[in-house]
Design a protein that fits this description.
Layout (H helix, E strand, L loop, with lengths): L1 E14 L10 E17 L6 E5 L4 E4 L8 H12 L8 E7 L9 H16 L6 H16 L5 H8 L3 E3 L6 E2 L6 E7 L6 H14 L1 H23 L5 H17 L5 H12 L4 E5 L6 E6 L2 H13 L4 E7 L1
Parallel strand pairs: 3-5
Antiparallel strand pairs: 1-2, 2-5, 2-6, 3-4, 6-7, 8-10, 8-11, 9-10
The protein binds (R)-mevalonate (MEV).
Length: about 325
C-alpha cells in the first residue's frame, strides 16, 4: 500500500556557477521537465526500513548502509527533524529521470523528494527553508563546499537570485525566455570541479578573485535584464557568452561542452554557456522563440547531445 509520494524538480544554473561558492551572486531556476520521485509503501515482507532504487538496480536495508550514504543521511535527518521514529516494514522507492552528475541537481532533487515524502507520511509540514537546510546537509557531505544554490532552488521551486548565506531573493522574470538544455553525456562530479577551482584559486588568488568579480558583475547585469520590463534577449545572450569565456579561463569547460556551445551558437542561439559544475554535464542556450529553441535543440541532438530539453524560464 502506498503511504505517500512526493517529487522534486531538477534545476539549471543560468549565471554565476563556481563564483557563487566564493560569495558572488548566481541565478538559477527549476527545470520541471525532469523530476525525482520518492514513494513510501508498506512492506509486510520485512520488519526493516528498506530502500529500492530500480533505476540503479539497488535494494538494501537502511541499517546495512554506511551512515554517510546520501540516502541514509536524508532519511535520518528528516525523521530526526520531525522528531519521529523510523517506521518498520516500510519501503522507500526512489526513481528519477534527472541524469546523474550532469549539473541538473539530481542528488539534491532525490534528497528533496525523499524528505517531502517522509514529511507527508508523518503528516508534518516541511516549509521550503527547512527542506532546503535538510538537503544542504547531504550536499555538504558530498560536495565539500557547496554554495547551497542547488538545495535552495529545488526546495523553493522558483527562479532565484542567490548569494551564499544571504536571505533568498526571488528572481522576478518579467518576460519568460526560452532555454535549450543539452547534456554532453559526460558524468562530471561536482565536488571534483569545485575542488579543482579551489586548488587553482589557492595557487593564484588574485587572478581567480578577479574572474569571480567579473562573473558577479555579469550575473547582476543578467538579473537586471531579466527583471526589466523591456526585452533585451540579445544582451542576455551576450552575457551568457561572456560568462562562458570566464568559465573557460577558470578551467571548468571541456571540449564536449565547447563543441555543443559552438553548435548552439551557429544554429541561432543568442548565447550559450555551460551550466553547473562543468568538465562535462550540461550546457544551456538562449533562444529567441519556441521555433528557434526547437531548431537549436534539433541541431544539438544531431551533434550528439544525449538529452535535450527545451524549457521556458518564467
Ligand atoms: C553546482 O550546481 C554549482 C557550483 O557552483 C557549486 C555550488 O554552487 O555549490 C559549481
Amino acid at each position: 500500500m502506498i503511504l505517500s509520494q512526493a517529487t522534486a524538480s531538477g534545476k539549471v544554473i543560468l549565471f554565476g556557477e563556481h563564483a557563487v561558492v566564493y560569495q558572488r551572486p548566481a541565478l538559477a531556476a527549476p527545470v520541471t521537465q525532469v523530476k525525482a520521485m520518492a514513494t513510501l509503501q508498506t512492506n509486510e515482507a520485512t520488519d526493516d526500513f528498506t530502500i529500492f532504487a530500480p533505476d540503479l538496480n539497488q535494494h538494501y536495508r537502511l541499517q546495512d548502509v554506511d551512515q554517510t550514504n546520501p540516502i541514509a543521511v536524508i532519511i535520518h535527518a528528516t525523521f530526526q527533524h520531525l522528531s519521529q521514529p523510523i517506521p518498520p516494514s516500510v519501503q522507500l522507492k526512489i526513481s528519477s529521470n534527472i541524469p546523474l552528475g550532469r549539473g541538473l541537481g539530481s542528488g539534491a532533487a532525490v534528497s528533496a523528494a525523499i524528505a517531502r515524502a517522509i514529511a507527508n507520511v508523518c503528516k508534518h509540514q516541511l516549509p521550503p527553508h527547512a527542506l532546503s537546510s535538510l538537503v544542504y546537509q547531504v550536499e555538504r557531505l558530498h560536495h565539500g563546499t557547496p554554495s547551497g544554490i542547488d538545495n535552495t532552488v529545488i526546495a523553493f521551486e522558483q527562479p532565484v537570485y542567490f548569494i551564499k548565506h544571504q536571505p533568498l531573493r526571488r528572481l522576478n522574470v518579467q518576460r519568460p525566455f526560452h532555454l535549450v538544455i543539452a547534456d554532453t553525456g559526460v558524468v562530471a562530479p561536482t565536488h571534483q570541479a569545485v575542488s579543482g577551482v579551489r586548488h587553482r584559486w589557492q595557487a593564484n588568488r588574485h587572478r581567480y578573485e578577479t574572474c569571480f568579480d567579473q562573473i558577479g558583475r555579469l550575473t547582476e547585469k543578467a538579473r537586471d535584464i531579466i527583471e526589466q520590463e523591456q526585452a533585451d534577449d540579445a544582451l542576455l545572450g551576450q552575457l551568457m557568452d561572456e560568462n562562458q569565456t570566464i568559465l573557460e579561463t577558470i578551467g571548468v569547460s571541456s571540449p564536449d561542452l565547447q563543441r555543443l556551445i559552438g553548435v548552439a551558437r551557429v544554429n541561432g542561439a543568442l548565447g550559450a554557456k555551460l551550466s553547473g559544475a562543468g568538465h562535462g554535464g550540461t550546457m544551456i542556450a538562449l533562444a529567441a522563440s519556441q521555433t528557434a529553441a526547437t531548431d537549436i535543440a534539433d541541431a544539438l541532438s544531431g551533434a550528439g547531445a544525449v538529452g535535450v530539453i527545451t524549457t521556458i524560464i518564467n
